[in-house]
Specification:
By secondary structure, this protein is an alpha/beta fold. It contains eleven helices and 18 strands. The N and C termini lie far apart (62 Å). Bound molecules: nicotinamide-adenine-dinucleotide. Nicotinamide-adenine-dinucleotide binds next to helix 1.
Length: 387
Amino acid sequence: MKSYRVAMLGCRSRGTSAARAYHAHPRIQVVGLCDLVQERLDTLGDELGVSTRFADLDEMIRQTQPDLVAIPTGTEFHYPLAMRVLEHGVNIEVEKPMCTDLAEADEVLAKAQAQGVRVAVHHQGRVGGSMRTMARAYAEGRIGKLRYIYASDKGYYGGYGLMNIGVHLLNYVIKFAGHCRSLTATALTAGHLITPEDVIPSANGMGTIAGENITATLQHDDNVTTNLLLHRFPVVDSTASGIQLFGTEGRMIWRSPGIWWLPTPHFLPDEEHGNWQALEEEAPDHYDPNGPANLDDYWFAEEWVRALDEGRDHEASGIEGRHVMEIMMGVFESAAYGTRIHLPQTQRDHPLVRWRREHGLGDPAPMPRPYYDWLAAEDHRLGRTTS
Ligand SMILES: NC(=O)c1ccc[n+]([C@@H]2O[C@H](COP(=O)([O-])OP(=O)(O)OC[C@H]3O[C@@H](n4cnc5c(N)ncnc54)[C@H](O)[C@@H]3O)[C@@H](O)[C@H]2O)c1
């Protein structure tokens, strides 16, 4: 059986997690590591026993001849690095979100197509243990026919939550409901509908955002709709994030730390109608639950092996990643202009940047990169703090 060669461009948090999963997979070899910071290269290289370490990505690709280059770097670097790596005619994966606007995502996909290679976005949950379990239960007919999905994030500032966590949730949503055809969204900042002055740079380099509390309604095919909530809570709480599927015969919920099935579509859980039942997360039989690899990252690696074996795209492909970006940009556009947005949109520039320009405003003032410093700056802009 062929084994695949993976090179890592970025060796900090996400690079380490992905590299551990690739390293643990029996049919994948981590053949090279690249980082600008020597200490990170050495820490990961020593852990995995990989001695081919580089500061220059072009050199790494030339010397190691990988099948796939993973790009787990800050979001603002996904586009330039993806374009540079694609010059080598190699498959790529970028961390999520794919890029910061649709024009960038289009260029990455066009370049990959011209080079005859594949793109995936590291939405590991899309192919992970929980979503596989839900997909199997759905295929078995446990909730009947899907009619509605509810999704909510962890309580980040809404626009940032959309780019950071909404991007994962939307991938789960389209796994079950298919692509989004149109949407509407309402975004509030400090209790008022957003204005062009509320358009600000995202924390952590995720482009341009707006809205402290965002509520969006998505229309899919086959009578299915989704409500997506990105509301700022006083405290960010992972257990608030999840999706719930409502079918004609039951409901299913995924929320950290598990998946539950309720065999009744409307009623409260009770003895007559049934109670919530926990479903077990699926894992590949060669996965070691006591090893260092995260299960969803491991599934993501396994899906690469299956996709490359079968000569097809990864399920979390660039096309899917771009569609999620179309939804996210559509949410911003609908909230800004107060209109229904039909997807895919023909205007591919960032709608919030366009909106500001139309109101005679230039680029918003820079803000801190780390989330909590950024949040403090935003609270200050909104007059909530004086210092
Ligand atoms: N999939 C998930 O569950 C998940 C979770 C958290 C974050 N993310 C995403 O991961 C990304 C951030 O990952 P991170 O926190 O590990 O990023 P990071 O910025 O902390 O680390 C990136 C590493 O890449 C290196 N690097 C950057 N440019 C380089 C270049 N040109 N050549 C060589 N090395 C270079 C940096 O030195 C750094 O060590 C974001 O896009 C974020 O949205 C995904």
